[in-house]
Amino acid sequence: MKIKVSELIVKYLQYLGIDTIFGIPGAHILPVYDALYDSDIQAVLAKHEQGAAFMAGGYAKASTRISACIATAGPGATNLITGIANAYADKQPMLVITGETPTYIFGKGGLQESSGEGDSLDQTGLFKHITRYSKTVERTDYLPQVLIQATKALLNPNPGPVLLSIPFNVQKELVDEHLLDGLAIRPDPIPSPQNSGVLDRFSELILDARQPVILAGYGAIRSDARKVVTELSTLLHIPVASSLKGKGIVSEQSGLSLGSLGVTSNGTAYQYITEKSDLLIILGASFNERTSYLWDQSLLEGRKILQVDHDPHQLQKLFEAELTICGDIKQVVSVLLNKIRYRLGEENHTAVGNDGATRLTASSNAEHAIFKSGFSLAKAFFDKLALLFPENARVFDDNIIFAQNFYQVSSSNHYYPNCGISSLGHAIPAAIGAQFTRQRPTFAILGDGGFQMCCMEIMTAINYDKPINVVLFNNGTMGLIRKNQHLLYEQRFINCDFINPDYSLLARSFAINYKRVTTLADLDELFEQYDLNQAINLIDIAIDKDALPDYSSKR
Description:
Elements: E1 2-4, H1 5-15, E2 20-23, H2 30-37, E3 42-45, H3 49-63, E4 67-71, H4 75-78, H5 81-89, E5 94-100, H6 123-127, E6 133-136, H7 143-155, E7 162-167, H8 168-171, E8 174-176, H9 196-208, E9 212-216, H10 218-222, H11 226-236, E10 240-242, E11 257-260, H12 268-275, E12 279-283, E13 304-309, E14 323-326, H13 329-347, H14 356-362, H15 376-388, E15 394-397, H16 401-406, E16 414-417, H17 427-435, E17 442-447, H18 448-454, H19 458-463, E18 468-474, H20 479-488, H21 503-510, E19 513-517, H22 520-529, E20 536-542
Parallel strand pairs: 2-3, 2-4, 4-5, 5-7, 6-7, 9-10, 9-12, 10-11, 12-13, 13-14, 15-16, 15-17, 17-18, 18-20, 19-20
Antiparallel strand pairs: 1-8
Helix pairs in contact: 1-2, 3-5, 3-17, 9-13, 11-13
């Protein structure tokens, strides 16, 4: 039996386990939308294609499954770019379906044509470097091979976005309905730690160290290694620092947590590593610009380094390690735990760490604090969030710097900082996308500048009855730009300050709850009287535009 390509694409979505697709229809993609009509896949209408891509990214983060978004040709596709780039940076498996003008008008100047023929936009070129695989399907004879390559890229241990652009006439062509039957693609296995000698040496170095420190990153989070990393830390009293994206790998309320390591953090982790540690165990952390304090060699010099990562390209990318293991972090640490427990029992070995982390974390660290004054409301908000939502909460954060310093993420919560390409306007649509998986108390944290880039997506949450708490830090300025112009450009402020709308009226027009927070009493009222679980709330927290964090972005 023959079916249309548009119907096959929907079957392919179902084959991948996709149950929700975010997007905006247009003329050149309507055959696929028409096929979606008869499927059990929920098509979610966003307000902007960028928002749709951010929603798909949020869905992928919250579910750890393949997500999907869809748009028409030309501007529909190009509006997806920032969201796709964000997913690429965060290694999110995202299937992107776009329409295209009919092949028989390629090169003739068709409306919204992006075939690359003649003077038309070259969509393949645009998306080449922000996708793992991108293809314009001009014929059906090679469609099976295209879907095989797409599936391999989506199921790769290091996945990313895949874009399939399908011309309008191709969507309506007929193909065998059993075309997907031979598409038995399975994920490439992550290497298993087979070399027992390396693992033995790994455990020996940990046990022989006087002051080891674990630095855990996003790779450890993706590996679902929270439990085993916590067990390793607890067993040997090893302090744990995290990258920003690794927050919560162990509970930051634990005495063995050093908090987040990075140039915008309070310096606790940096101080402990540089002053005390003799061994740094790096688990799935890329040692990027933010985490490494702009690649400060003080973090590495004078101490041995052990590294575990499932991505071989991350191993010794920026430093030389004593030992490396390429493999799944959860699996590797589990094996290490067994070896270490055996040796502890066999040799009556004592724990290698001490309570220095507890003492250091408990200190005020006033010397290193980047928030000297003016941010008491931000701190109080995150303190209450950690206290009153100790588990099953999601936080999507575009602001980052407040949460990095003030939010103690428990090992039962999920923190998603937007630090892939750090795009403004991400938190609200990403949080909405996450709510299309299992619903949980969800917070979108962002500044007033970023809010105005994406606030209409609140209507998407309203249209689909998805509860979300939008936490808006309101200071009438682009805070990071103002800080840099203050520190580096002699306070020559330009294009950083602006006038905000009346957010109470905006919330009223949305028919959602609104709370203006200017005092600690307002915060108490917010957490005591507002439904932060099942309602849509706009929380407007006042921040002084002239209160600036004390750190330098200068290289």
